[in-house]
Design a protein that fits this description.
alpha+beta; 2 domains; 3-stranded antiparallel sheet; 9 strands; 15% helix; 27% strand; elongated
Length: 172
């Protein structure tokens, strides 16, 4: 039976969120080899979907996707007319200038600072990284976190500001 679903694609760069009118068995989730990473419950009518999932009438002003406001920051999304993903990147614009934030090859990274915590509590499982910023700083860390590849709708606002260097202690 066909129903209405709100879906979020696995890669926001390729496809913003959308509404599908489909039989549930025809929707492939990412773990099934499909492109959908998140999906609402099914609804009988489009109006019911919009009301229950708190979808605004206007598309995202950045990517054209659906603005769904049932998140904790729903009022912010409504006020800015941005979908969840675009709002995420919009908030990162100012963060990129902090000394522990890096844009490398179009991806956004944060350094949590060198730590002696167990590896499972650290970014990238405690792997060692050496980063050279374009202003000449060298950062060595075992607690690097990756937010994601930057959305194509925001990449022009995030120029690379660093590069990865080889970590000598692992080279023999």
């Amino acid at each position: 039976m066909k129903r209405y679903y709100f879906v979020v694609g696995y890669n926001h760069n390729d496809k913003p969120s959308e509404i599908l009118f489909e039989d549930r068995s025809n929707v492939k989730m990412s773990y099934q080899g499909g492109e959908v990473c998140s999906m609402s419950r099914g609804y009988d009518t489009l109006d019911e979907l919009k009301v229950k999932e708190k979808i605004t009438d206007n598309p995202c002003c950045s990517c054209g996707g659906i603005v769904i406001t049932n998140y904790t920051n729903g009022q912010v999304l409504r006020d800015k007319n941005l979908c969840f993903s675009c709002n995420f990147w919009d908030e990162k614009i100012e963060e990129q200038h902090k000394p522990n934030k890096f844009v490398i090859n179009g991806a956004f990274y944060s350094d949590g600072g060198r730590s002696n915590k167990p590896n499972h509590c650290l970014g990238f499982g405690g792997a060692e990284f050496k980063i050279e910023t374009f202003d000449g700083r060298i950062i060595e860390t075992n607690n690097l976190w990756c937010a994601s590849k930057i959305s194509k709708y925001y990449i022009d606002k995030f120029p690379d500001n660093a590069k990865f260097c080889k970590v000598e202690k692992f080279l023999k």
